Prior knowledge:
The complex is a heterotrimer of chains A (244), B (264) and C (272). Chain A is built from 9 helices and 10 strands. By secondary structure, chain A is α/β, with parallel strands linked by helices. In chain A, the strands form 2 sheets. Chain A has a 6-stranded mixed sheet, sandwiched between helices. A 4-stranded antiparallel sheet of chain A has the order 2-1-4-5, with helices on one face. In chain A, helix 3 packs parallel to helix 5 and helix 4 packs across helix 5 (139-151). The longest helix of chain A is centred in the C-terminal third of the chain and has 18 residues, at 169-186. The model of chain A has no long low-confidence stretch (mean pLDDT 89). With 264 residues, chain B is an all-alpha fold. In chain B, helix 1 (3-42) crosses helix 5, helix 1 (3-42) packs across helix 7 and helix 3 packs parallel to helix 7 (202-228). Chain C is mainly alpha-helical and 272 residues long. Chain C has one domain (35-44, 52-263). In chain C, 81% of the residues lie in helices and 0% in strands. In chain C, helix 3 runs antiparallel to helix 8 (237-269). Chains in contact: A-C, B-C. At the B-C interface, helix 1, helix 2, helix 3 and helix 8 of B face helix 2, helix 3 and helix 8 of C.
Amino acid sequence: xxxxxxxxxxxxxxxxxxxxxxxxxxxxxxxxxxxxxxxxxxxxxxxxxxxxxxxxxxxxxxxxxxxxxxxxxxxxxxxxxxxxxxxxxxxxxxxxxxxxxxxxxxxxxxxxxxxxxxxxxxxxxxxxxxxxxxxxxxxxxxxxxxxxxxxxxxxxxxxxxxxxxxxxxxxxxxxxxxxxxxxxxxxxxxxxxxxxxxxxxxxxxxxxxxxxxxxxxxxxxxxxxxxxxxxxxxxxxxxxxxxx
Amino acid sequence: xxxxxxxxxxxxxxxxxxxxxxxxxxxxxxxxxxxxxxxxxxxxxxxxxxxxxxxxxxxxxxxxxxxxxxxxxxxxxxxxxxxxxxxxxxxxxxxxxxxxxxxxxxxxxxxxxxxxxxxxxxxxxxxxxxxxxxxxxxxxxxxxxxxxxxxxxxxxxxxxxxxxxxxxxxxxxxxxxxxxxxxxxxxxxxxxxxxxxxxxxxxxxxxxxxxxxxxxxxxxxxxxxxxxxxxxxxxxxxxxxxxxxxxxxxxxxxxxxxxxxxxx
Amino acid sequence: xxxxxxxxxxxxxxxxxxxxxxxxxxxxxxxxxxxxxxxxxxxxxxxxxxxxxxxxxxxxxxxxxxxxxxxxxxxxxxxxxxxxxxxxxxxxxxxxxxxxxxxxxxxxxxxxxxxxxxxxxxxxxxxxxxxxxxxxxxxxxxxxxxxxxxxxxxxxxxxxxxxxxxxxxxxxxxxxxxxxxxxxxxxxxxxxxxxxxxxxxxxxxxxxxxxxxxxxxxxxxxxxxxxxxxxxxxxxxxxxxxxxxxxxxxxxxxxxxxxxxxxxxxxxxxxx
Lengths: 244, 264, 272
């Protein structure tokens, strides 16, 4: 379970303002909000990639800010992360990209690595792409390799930052369904950031909405759809008229 | 050709490719030079851009020039010290440090540091503008990018190099004088006498300054060329900066040799 | 480490504040470099080494700089000899010690320092650009998420490769400069190679200073440039700036180290 308490961060201008929320175990949590509202920063704080000015994050009872660099390395075994721009290592092949966390974090034998990489590639419909270089892939293909790399370690907590950005509607839906099926099957705790509200709401259990660094809504998907808060209503239903 | 022969000739092949690249780059820079000269002739110069670039390049490079010059002066004295002590030639320290600084080290090091700072910056700026299509936007607004962007920067770079070299020469000799005093007890007065004793003349100073102008032209041309010809997005900008810095550095030494040889 | 780049200092004006701020940011920069150096050394002792990474970096630094350095050092050898000869003739008509002084200067200072300045330019820019691009595309964050500390994975191989290759390239370049210097002395000043190749002034202490310089420069350049690369901010534009910072700071580091090592060498071996 992920507990966030009064998180604040400022880079000269405020980026996070006193954010508090709880993501229960096994929940598929959707994080939405207009651009630059602090969603990616929040994700990075949970994994310790960034430090807050005030507040704290604890994951399964462990306070993230209290961890040393060495402890952070083993802490991150709990996580798989898909970055907003994929962040594929452009100096390795697709297969090596996906295998990297297995080689680096876990002592998995080579034969098993190959097998798991192939399995992940097939799961994201990229079977046989192992020897390709990331620079030669389309945006959608890179995104899917990113998903494969994020899930290959079978970590219990996965963060997807814009998993379907730039994908056509059919592929988008396939990705969302795939991620939801994986989450149900492996009982993962997932936080998903996406601007594709309609599709996102079909897979989430809970929703959190951020606006200008503050958390303006935290509740179940149903509550989000029927919320009376003007900002939430406008964003969730994609209306042009409103406070946003 | 078979495998082993190809492998043995690989360094030669690489050298050949490098020479081709060099020739190509020289040619392209010549084209940029021609464009600049044409614009200069029509005096279609944006004064404000010129001033802005002079400030950005000249004034803001000053700290680096100062630090480099002072340390370099001291290093030269340290290197010359054993020789001076060996021959007891205290009076010649000023001459020794002087000719090295004025003719070679002053212009060379200043050019290298400015190339690293100003040249690379310039390429990064122009490169980013190219990649974000701002150059095309200028053209669409019927503003000639070469006249508006390149010429002021070019002039600013040459001017920066000239004045920086002058300043660096003075500072390096200053640093050398005090290092000489501190390290081997050569009085600053003795050092000064050695400088003006007649072994060094205004010709040595001019030699260095002519070099600095030519270095400036070199750095200006290469940084503008590589900046404007960036392809491949953001990584391309990084590559272009890399290319500028390397080409300028190599070019500076080649030009230095030629000028030393010609001016004797 | 990414956070510090975003801290905005209070904009007090006034001369003392400006100087103070400069000094403080210089001190902060020095502290950061030191931190990176310490962590790199830690990982040299304890970290994992990717197979082939070290060799790849050594190739990048060494082979790719070879042509460039050979050309530059060739010219330097000639220029150095030319200038030394011209000036010496003004004072003393006998050029028999030209070679001796030339070799002494080359070994004690010039070979290592000039190679280092050239590498600071080429290798420094390259490392900063590579690492900077990776920061901007979040690959460095991705490395951290996969328990690969960027200092261990990215900086360490470049650090080791640079130390080795700087030394190797200095030896090679020294050789090239000696060759061109000898030719110049013969052609321009009619000093025979036999007279020129006078090693009487080159002592063991000079060789020691040369090696120390190679190691110091070889260590400094990747640390300084990698620090610039890792502190890239401002999106893809920031990569260009990081490269610039890396080249300037690496060059400055070489010059300052030169001064420190030369001074130390002078006091150790020549006394006062």
